[in-house]
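Fold it.
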Amino acid sequence: MHRIRFLIHSLAHLVNDSYGGFLAPLLPLLAARHELSLVTTGFLVTIVTLSASLAQPFWGWLSDRHPHRGYIVGGVFASGLFFSMIGIAPNLVVLVIVIIAGGLGISCFHPMATAVASDMTVRRKGLAIAFFVTAGTSGFALGPVFVALLVETVGLHWMPIAAVPALLVAVIWLLFGPRGISGTNKTDSVGTLQNSAPAIPYSPIILLTSSSILRGVCILIFTNFMSFHLETMGLSLKSYSFYIFALQFGGSMGVLVCGSLSDKIGRWRVMLWTPVVSTPLFYLFLRTEGTLSFIALFLAGFFIFASAPAVIVAAQKMMFRREAMASALQIGLAWGTAGLLMGPVGKLGEVIGVYNLLLATALVPILLSVMTLLITPFRNQLEA
């Protein structure tokens, strides 16, 4: 029964994050419908990333002090309800409002849900977190394909029916999901929690968060601006949604495989070697076409995402009894900060061209490996 509850919990993550993938493939359609420039579409990416990610430290702080199932159930339902409305938004103002509301649903879900996933396992936390994160990245990969097929089949005006999976999963999670969430703090009072928690080692936490920010920047740029590059090559909405799927699903596999690997060979090694491998693969994707390009993008996604579970578990180890906040920093704050850059990135893309923007972005993973080298003095702490 414990495994079933964990699987249901991971399913909720998959469905929740699938709605976060709705915007990217629809950006060209929304840009045409609302007459948006590349800069404005970049700011839409910033808005969704800010609401879905930057608010997570607040939810993490709140979840550590007042753990409750409502964060998870309400988060899934809100993300599904509001992201399913972006196709019927009559103007840019309403579009921004539903994006913010849906993003807040996603951000509400993550800190409590990640802490619960970690709390449900005692041994091999790397594998458990990897499986849980894989569910989310798989959802984010499936979201663009699902919404693209839905829109091509029934049109934007029928998008609200996409909220049905969120409602179903919220009910299933309430009935059969994890129990005893109020015990995730492992203390009887807020005061005991704060007094017994060890001091936070700020230097390695800053380095880990910086690494997560750089990963987020790279993934967001490719996920959201790749569609414009592929559109210039004559691909359809359905076609470039599959490229987004390749990147994200490759990431899902990388998270699962290397999350388990980090339990065996160490988190530091995974964090050092996997990001740098993605750089030549991103270049291969941009320089080729057809099947080879698709495979290269899948493998690039595999390696750029691969170190995420190791970073999350390392942060949780260094922030003992503050696991929700640790997760919020590596997932929420990092992605939110990366999202802040998407507006300026859109402007840069207008100046130098989307293709050149993607070429430059392919170098970013190298910086992740450099950041890991800076963490070397704290290696024993993150491997604890």
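Residues 202-232 form the longest helix (31 residues).
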